[in-house]
Amino acid sequence: MAANSTEDKQNSGKSKFSDPFVSPDFYNIDDLLTGEQKLVRSSVRDFVKKEITPYIEEWSQKARFPYEIVKKFGETGAFGPTIPAEYGGGGLDYISYGLIMQEIERGDSGMRSTASVQGSLVMYPIFKFGSEEQRRKYLPKLAAGEWLGCFGLTEPDHGSNPGGMLTHFKDMGDHYLLNGSKMWISNAPKADLAVVWAKNEEGRIHGLIVERGMEGFSTPETHNKWSLRASTTGELVFDNVKVPKENLLPGKSGLGAPLMCLDSARYGISWGALGAAMDCYDSARRYSLERIQFDKPIASFQLVQKKLAEMLTEITKAQLICWRLGKLMDEGKATTQQISLAKRNNVAMALDVAREARQIHGAMGITGDYPVMRHMMNLESVVTYEGTHDIHLLILGNEITGIPAFK
Ligand code: TGC
Ligand code: FAD
């Protein structure tokens, strides 16, 4: 192993990167949080400062998914925070869940992807639609990070329109026979199991738990991404896979089942994007005070102040959206459309903040010495996955007018 590599630094516990992040809180939103929520946030913030920020640039530059983070996420309670403790989850409220996603994505969107897929897209459907046996078999191991899961909805020819999926299964009497493929699946190459959405012979969508090692099931990795480089992405290929009947999720069928999971994940992304924006803003603020041009810190120029003031304004608005949406989630009142508004607004806001922050850093902004370019590239995936920016606009358009404009 080359001297000074990430592995060396991890082993010695040292890194050249320090993490001076200070969280913006212009409207005293902390006053709205409970003691427990603040405790959860500070413990995850400490975790990110110790386990993610010192290494993330190198993982991203080398496109390395740090598999060892899975167990560490389990130990820190990042997987399934809202799942009841009897199944290994955190038994926490939705604002705590949001704060966990905010802190992790402050570190990196790809790391948040790993955690939100495991919690919202794998543990949630098993908890919500699974049998008691399935809950007891899978949830504690997923919560602890002993197993990693993935969620297979998107197909090569069906992204925004998952209802058109071709992956299907046949009832063979004592098992199901699964055929088809999924694409762009986060965690897939390293996953121990996949929650897969497929049509039965009547064309009805069901969730199936497919385990690594089942004959005919493979997970080829997707290479050459410019975004989410520390997250692992792949395909799911099913070639006459015999799936035991007890692996079908019995609690709900139809497209509404995966869309319910997406509500939970999109909610987490709203908070996560906020974390990425906060990191970019904080880096730009500090850099602008230190960088001297024309004998003055660049922070003294009105155009730089305009950028910073607008970033802080948008971050503050997004913080208020997240907090209110979290309350609605906890009361069981949040609608899909409210979640769409938050995901769409906050991810677009974070992308704008990242691009402005990149400009404030000048040439330094394109290097891995600062986190902004990495966040910016990551957010190009976040604005597309879990429903593109325009699909969320159409979800809102449908809500406002009652007219679906998807088709
Ligand atoms: P539509 O006709 O609107 O709905 C079909 C059925 O589903 C019901 N439904 C819901 N049920 C529960 N919860 C929800 N949120 C629901 N939304 C809809 C609906 O009532 C209907 O039920 P029924 O009984 O009448 O059949 O469906 P549509 O085919 O017109 O599609 C609507 C559309 C386009 C909004 C939807 O398909 C969509 O959201 N498309 C975007 C696809 C998407 O977001 N994919 C994400 C894949 S996973 C991912 O990206 C993970 S990235 C993870 C990471 O790394 O962090
Ligand atoms: P398309 O649906 O082909 O859309 C292309 C363009 O057309 C977009 O701009 C879109 O807004 C626009 N468009 C499409 N339909 C309409 C319309 N009706 N009206 C107007 N414009 C429209 N999926 C999973 O199932 N599991 C995962 O874990 C997962 N992880 C991912 C990780 C990464 C890094 C990425 C990039 C994607 C991941 N996805 C995952 C897939 C993701 O959800 C899809 O990419 C997304 O839903 C969009 O589908 P698409 O890429 O096929 O784009």
Description:
With 407 residues, the protein is α+β, with helices and mostly antiparallel strands. 49% of the residues lie in helices and 13% in strands. The chain has twelve helices and nine strands. The strands form three sheets. A four-stranded antiparallel sheet has the order 2-3-7-6, with helices on one face. Strands 1-4-5 form a three-stranded mixed sheet, with helices on one face. It has a two-stranded antiparallel sheet with strand order 8-9. Residues 117, 150-154, 159-160, 184-186, 228, 233, 381, 384-386, 388, 390-391, 394, 406 line the site of flavin-adenine dinucleotide.
Task: State the main characteristics.
407 residues, alpha+beta, three-stranded mixed β-sheet, 9 strands, binds 3-thiaglutaryl-CoA, binds flavin-adenine dinucleotide
